[in-house]
Amino acid sequence: MDDKNEKMTTFKKWMISIRPFALPASTMPVIFGTFLAVFYGGYSFKPGLFLLAFFAMVILHSGANLLNDVADFKKGLDTIPSPVSGGVVKGILSTREALIAAILLLSVGTVIGLILVWLTGPLLLVIGILGVLVGVFYTVGGKLTLKYHALGDLSVFLNFGILGSLGAWFVQSGTFSWIPVIWAVPMATLVIAILHANNWRDIEGDKKQNIFTIASLLGDKKSLVYYALLIFAPFFIIIGLVFLPRIIIGEIPALPFTFLITILSFPIALKLWAKALSRKTPKSPLDFVALDGATAQLNLVFGLLCTVALFLDAGIGLWF
Predict the structure, then answer these.
(1) Structural domain of residue 237, as residue ranges?
(2) Rounded average pLDDT over 56-77
(3) What is the CATH classification number for the domain harbouring 203?
(4) Is residue 3 assigned to a domain?
(5) How many other CB atoms are there within 10 angstroms of residue 257's CB atom?
């Protein structure tokens, strides 16, 4: 480590390493699924269980980030530090430190998950096991490694979207429902956009290491189209779910009209699109390099607006 890194506080080192900018991708579905169960499902709010679920997701996601950094660094994928890269490639943590921390965090997160299973029910165990397996095998597992075999997009869609929302709903309600699954799709799509922005930037390095991501398979031009689909589709999905009376899968009701408030985040998507279009001649050197971090901001605002929509709908229900 250089002198600058040695002077860095321990807290700052670990905060950089766990990539806190990405944590809303996993925690927003937990918040959304919780308040969906309370305000739409009519279940009593259990704050203790919510906090356990929230911190379990933060801890597990942080552990997965560290594990991902170690695996990518050892494979030679991460060699040049970026504004949003982890501590290993920056040289502020050794691979051993990061690996030990990853194992510790994943273990603690799993224990919290098991406590939640004991307090709620066995369905959460199924959701949790699937989530942990996807998180671990995302970058670890040889031929089973999901990220390196173009399954990373599906992995984050499940873990940081569908499973998070469904698990949070179950923690509050103790029941299964398709509502938190279907209604979380727009947010889950934006989580894919975060990952794709990262993989798009790393296309050349991934190809050299025979790593296959959706971005590397598509190439630069098609990745631009795919990115546009990922950042704009959630708005059209919201509109569709609002105005469609029912969804084919079961008795899924239409989204409340209050979810149209998410359109307020559309200008952010337009700014991201402009950065993507000018990726080869960016106005700022970091516009494309840090596109994943910027996309995470859209995901955060969009997710918060979805939660606000639930509050607004509940308020309207009280008045009428």
Answers:
(1) 10-315
(2) 83
(3) 1.10.600
(4) no
(5) 13
Q: What is the mean pLDDT of residues 292-307?
A: 94
The span from the CA of 60 to the CA of 64, in Å, is 6
Look at the pTM and tell me if it is higher than 0.85: yes
Residue 135 has pLDDT above 90, yes or no: no
pLDDT higher than threshold 70 for residue 278: yes
| Radius of gyration, CA atoms only, the chain | 20
Is residue 2 included in any domain, yes or no? no
What total number of domains does the chain contain?
A: 1
> Is position 4 within any domain?
no
* 5 within some domain: no
pLDDT reading at 320 higher than 50: no
